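Ligand-bound model needed. FE2/S2 (inorganic) cluster.
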Amino acid sequence: MERRDFLHDISQATVAICAGSLLAACSKSSDNNVTPPPPGGGNALITANLNSELTSVGSSKTGGSVIVIRTAAGNVPASFVALSLICTHMQCTVNYDAGASGFKCPCHGSEYNLSGAVTQGPAPSSLKKYTVAVNNNTLTVS
Ligand code: FES
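Prediction:
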């Protein structure tokens, strides 16, 4: 075998081995380590079972800096509001006051109604709203 033929054969064998390794790394077996999305979808910020949660008007559930509140009877999206709990003034966390049907910021006194609109400054804008979906008595906020 000529030296040139030997080097050619070696380089082709090396390419075949490397390609095989790359294909193996991309195979289905490596997908076993992927964490499945949470119930209700991968983008859900809050999920709730409406058979046992959020059953009365005014009740709420939080997830991180997001809150969902039941505002009316019926398990339809229009019966809920989902809002950020981050004040639009200087990003303090606002407190939900079910009795006052709104939110109060402990930092500088801003207040918001249940729609998230500012009712007392200095907050410059409404609380961020999120989307509520209801499917088979499972509520999701995204
Ligand atoms: S941070 Fe809420 S009023 Fe200033």
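Residues 87, 89-90, 92, 105, 107-110, 122-123 surround FE2/S2 (inorganic) cluster (CB under 6 Å).
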